[in-house]
Every structure is written in C-alpha cells, then in structure tokens.
Write a structure and sequence with these properties.
Radius of gyration: 17 Å
Helix content: over 70%
Structural class: mainly alpha
Number of domains: 1
Shape: globular
Strand content: under 5%
Distance between the termini: 26 Å
Largest sheet: none
Length: 136
Amino acid sequence: MVRPVTGRSRRIVIVVKALHIALAYLTVAGFVIRGFWTLAESPLREERWVRIAPHVVDTLLLSLGVVLAIRLQVSPFSGWLAAKLLGLLAYIGFGTVTMRARSRTVKVAGFVGALASVVYIFAVAVSRSPWPFPSG
C-alpha cells in the first residue's frame, strides 16, 4: 500500500520520482551502448568515464528509489517492490555476464537476459504488480 502524500511532500515525491525515472532510462541507454561496444570489442568500452559513469548513475538511481520507498512508506518486502529488487539482481547478474564473459555467445545471452530483466522491472514499476503481464 502506498501512503498518500500531500502538499510540499507531494511535490518532493513528484520531483524524486521524475529523476528516478530519468535515471532508469539513462542507465538502460548506457547499458545498451556499453553492451554493443562489448559485443563489437570496441576500445571505447575501456575509456575511464565509460567504466565510472554507470556506477554514478546507478548509485543515484538506487538512492532515489530508497528515498521514494521511505517517503511513500513502501516496504522493500512488499510484493511489487520486492519483485523490482529481484529483477534488479537479475539485471546486475546478466549485465555482469555481458561485460565479463569471454564467449560472444554467452555475452549475447547475458545481454538479452539483462534487457528482459529491464522489461520486467519497468512493467512491475508501472503496474505495481509482481506479475505485470496479462494471464490468459
């Protein structure tokens, strides 16, 4: 259950949520670019800023998610938020495989798995349901 917020607190939640969403899109865009560079074995993937920027973006993204959960009084063990966190763990795992595997086939599988995880996370975020896909 999400606690209703009013007044100044509501405005803060709206701004934090907008930033959280923007950072979510930014981190996915960055991952897709780095994934393509990895698959193409581009030297760009070794640039210092390419290795540091994702950590900055992801730290801000996660921090804003924590702020939202606290402001809205949503437990990380509640159905939909727990599902997002499990999806995040899958995304991290698949992303690590994409960036570190030696085999191109394994890299591609990791890349596809990471993108599928993102689709799941985004669908859960929009629907606020641990199973956001139509059944039937």
